[in-house]
Amino acid sequence: MHPLPNIFPQLHTPRLDLVELQPWHAADLLELFSDPLVTQYYHVMPLKTELDAERVISYFYHRFKDHLGIRWGITLQGQSKLIGTIGFNSFPQLHRGVIVYALAHAYWGQGYMTEAILELVRYGFRELELSRIEAEVMPANISSERVLLKNGFRQEGTLKKWMEWEGRLFDINMWALVRE
Question: Would you call 35 exposed, middle or buried from its count of C-beta atoms within 10 A (0-12, 13-18, 19+)?
Fold first, then answer.
């Protein structure tokens, strides 16, 4: 259950490539995580420089090497421009993983994240042999909850004061998909 591979896996969908983030993605990552529409419900410090983005890419790289998480860049199939990120932020226990995702605003409402989550779920259940995949969503993030629902996730409840960010506590809706 869940041991990440030593070689970063490339994943593909009919319209997307899920790729390992590289230093040359820094400008695209900066654009993604400096957009207040993208980061409104995404607890990440908005990036200010490409150096900030390079540090985030390095952080993701080390989390993968240490088998703590895995984060892909999302590109349109056959292209190199990063339009989002997706992955397992953590594995609180070997049988379950917590997903996280972000998509550039220009690509919202086109089914890209639904497609990427479907592939992430397939990978998590088949390759990592997870039994449970979770998503923690801020209650006002209706779009994120809608995409989870499309992928078969069910809301299990609201965790009161579950997340602390910049000295404030936030409620989180827990969504999960369980392998039968």
Answer: middle
Please give the average per-residue pLDDT across 153-172, as a whole number: 91
Helix, strand, or coil here: 98?
Answer: strand
- The three-state secondary structure class of 22 is coil
DSSP per-residue letters across 53-68: HHHHHHHHHHHHHTTS
- Angstrom CA distances, 126 to 56, 120, 130, 179, stand at 28, 10, 8, 10
The CA-based angle 65-5-97, given to 5 degrees, is 80
Asked whether the predicted pLDDT for residue 95 surpasses 90, the reply is yes
Q: State the helix-helix crossing angle for 50-65 and 26-33, rounded to 10 degrees.
A: 100
Domain with 38 in it: 11-132
147 found inside a domain: no
Domain presence at residue 68: yes
**Tally of CB atoms within 10 A around 86:** 23
